Fold this sequence. Notes:
This protein is α/β, with parallel strands linked by helices. The chain folds into two domains: 14-176, Rossmann fold (3-Layer(aba) Sandwich), CATH 3.40.50.1260; 183-389, Phosphoglycerate kinase, N-terminal domain (Rossmann fold, 3-Layer(aba) Sandwich). The chain contains 14 helices and 15 strands. The chain has a six-stranded parallel beta sheet with strand order 3-4-2-1-5-6, with helices on both faces. Helix 1 crosses helix 2 and helix 10 (304-315) packs parallel to helix 11. Bound molecules: adenosine monophosphate. The site of adenosine monophosphate has 16 residues, from strand 12.
Amino acid sequence: MMQTIDNYNFSGKKAIVRVDFNVPLNKETFEVTDDTRIRGALPTIKKILNDGGSAVLMSHLGRPKEGPEDKFSLRHVIINLSGHLGIDIKFADDCVSDEALAMKKALKPGEVLLLENLRFYKEENKDKDGMKGFAARLAEGADVYVNDAFGTAHRAHASTAIIADFFSTENKMFGYLINSELASIDKVLNESKSPFTAIMGGAKVSDKILVIENLLPRIDNLIIGGGMTYTFVKAKGGRIGNSLCEEDKLDLALDILKKAVANNVKVYIPTDAVNADRFDANANTAKSKTDETPDGWMGLDIGEETIATYIKVITESKTVLWNGPMGVFEMDKFAAGTTAVAKALAEATAKGAFTLIGGGDSVAAINKNKLADKVSYVSTGGGAMLEYMEGKELPGIKAIRG
Ligand code: AMP
């Protein structure tokens, strides 16, 4: 039987916890600019401490190339974490050194030790041969392993999967964050109320194809937005100017539309757009139908007519899943569509719908509009959520579920 965090008594135990502290930092001051992921890990850490256990936290931060780099140091998250927990945080400036092991061993009940960035070692994620020894070193000195890093659950890394082999079934488990992430996704996949609308945006259709295919038997409406719009529009014979298009995915787009018909799914492709004469925040803009984009122009956001249709469909839904922006929302001139969708999700939630948002950009749009507490669930893992929704077995999940 799989162990659960609720049933576990951490009293007198040392827990090694894989958290996801891969948070954005201010480039000059290195302050945490969005602590959603840190806040996500707090229930698990608090449970361990309140039971009378101690927590050794490990995470990656960014993508360091080789060895330690100050801009990727987890030292930068200490102030934030310490503020949330109301205690001092001990810090080991190397995750597997003798000193780190000594600090682990000296840790007392109620204390928290944060290890330095796991990815300062290639054995964490790149050097497959070295992973086992590295994982063994991370496991040393700990009685129990808790994985609460949903954002990396789709990676077979030392700290997310291999380390689980060093603990018996009763001494490894998911933390509260992974539990709630999985519960929210399972709810959408298996217990959705109709009408169920999936909104897929972002740059490329190729990234979303598997998840769309897995969703088609479950959903009533598929809303398309973002750059991938134009692969569909072109496949249907429209003029797309310089808009983003995956030329080699035109057949695939038509195939999705066919499968949607077979599954009784209504597909919404943007009908009008805000176009730009270049990919730039200060570009000149003009409106057109999506299938009549003038030469030399590119569609960078959905237009007013599309926004009105999308708001209606979303607010009339009982289940909504959103992944990927409707336009180049990083630039104010092309953010209106994404903002409108974010607000429509909040409205649907207020009317009783279950709404799930995943993917860095959609989550950023929700946060930018201060709507995180007005939707049902904001996922901390874009890639992991998509892979789980594709029906794939995630290595970090399998390592514990078996
Ligand atoms: P993804 O990572 O696939 O979810 O794509 C997100 C990115 O798609 C964001 O950075 C957006 O700026 C970009 N994007 C959204 N709409 C468009 C568009 N119409 N043309 C080009 N890029 C877009």
